[in-house]
């Protein structure tokens, strides 16, 4: 029986080692997906700034900020942090910043469709994964860390 348990453990350990090598691929996939979602939202905002201001004044109820400041900060966040996230520079900070943008987007709407809320939850989970596990091997953070360590 002990031999069977040992063999199962060895196979599990080998599978775990192989799966750990996928971390960088999964991380960059998550980073690029989230970056695209937020960056495209930012581009939509700057494409029609008058409509963006109108929506922040009438539709979105961002707490503690004027609608103009909320529009500028939200658009800035959706354009700058996705770029940093995609290249993996200040990755954890960028993921936290986009998490704040994500949370504010959810709480600023009086009513949010269940499908939209679901997407925000998925984005939040992906961002949390990046915050907790980092950017992975394929990132500017990793390159800078290696460069400064030598």
Q: N-to-C SSE series? A: HHHHHHH
Rg, Å, rounded:
20 Å
Unreliable spans: none
Main sheet specs: none
- Number of extended strands: 0
Helical proportion?
over 70%
How many discrete domains? 1
* Cα distance spanning the termini: 49 Å
Quote the beta fraction.
under 5%
Quick synopsis:
By secondary structure, the chain is an all-alpha fold.
How does the SSE layout of this entry go?
Blueprint lengths: L1 H19 L2 H25 L1 H10 L8 H21 L3 H17 L6 H20 L6 H10 L1
Helix pairs in contact: 2-4, 2-6, 3-4, 4-5, 5-6
Describe this structure in words.
By secondary structure, this protein is mainly α. It has one domain (22-149). 81% of the residues lie in helices and 0% in strands. The protein has helices at 2-20, 23-47, 49-58, 67-87, 91-107, 114-133, 140-149. The model has no long low-confidence stretch (mean pLDDT 93).
Index terms:
150 residues, mainly alpha, 81% helix
């Amino acid at each position: 029986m002990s031999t069977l348990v040992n063999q199962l453990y060895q196979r599990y350990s080998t599978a775990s080692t192989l799966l750990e090598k996928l971390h960088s691929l999964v991380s960059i996939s998550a980073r690029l997906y989230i970056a695209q979602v937020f960056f495209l939202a930012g581009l939509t905002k700057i494409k029609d700034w008058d409509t963006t201001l109108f929506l922040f004044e009438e539709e979105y109820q961002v707490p503690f900020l004027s609608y103009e400041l909320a529009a500028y900060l939200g658009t800035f966040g959706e354009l700058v942090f996705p770029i940093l996230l995609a290249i993996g520079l200040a990755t954890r900070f960028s993921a936290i910043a986009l998490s704040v943008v994500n949370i504010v987007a959810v709480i600023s709407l009086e009513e949010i469709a269940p499908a939209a809320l679901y997407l925000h939850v998925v984005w939040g989970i992906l961002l949390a994964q990046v915050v907790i596990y980092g950017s992975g091997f394929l990132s500017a953070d990793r390159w800078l860390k290696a460069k400064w360590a030598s």
